[in-house]
Amino acid sequence: MIQRFDTGPRMSEMTVHNGVAYLAGQVAEDAGADIVGQTEQVLAAIDALLAQAGTDKRNILRAEIFLADMADFAGMNEAWGRWVPQGATPARATVQAKLASPGWKVEIVITAAIA
């Protein structure tokens, strides 16, 4: 069985199958915020989606981070470092990419176990 959360005409914010939650790319609501603020918004959205699936950030298997500008890497890592649980850090990739909206500085995709 596949569960879909916050399903719209083009995508779902999250799907769950066989004990794994797959989150769509999460972006900031306030595109006017700096990289730290946008990253904090994205991480809060991830927390909320994981809670809907009955899991949390300690069970993240993989994080894919897309930055509009690699100059924002340190600021993103500042917010990430405060949020990610030490001893339960996931596999992670960070790349520069042109994001769908010019105001977005960061987009994060998460895959997490439901434990």
UniProtKB/TrEMBL annotation:
Any Pfam family matching the protein: Ribonuc_L-PSP
Cross-referenced SUPFAM superfamilies: YjgF-like
Domain of life according to the entry: Bacteria
Family annotation (CDD domains): YjgF_YER057c_UK114_like_2
Transmembrane segments: none
Record-stated family: Belongs to the RutC family.
Protein name, per record: Endoribonuclease L-PSP
Organism, scientific name: Rhodanobacter fulvus Jip2
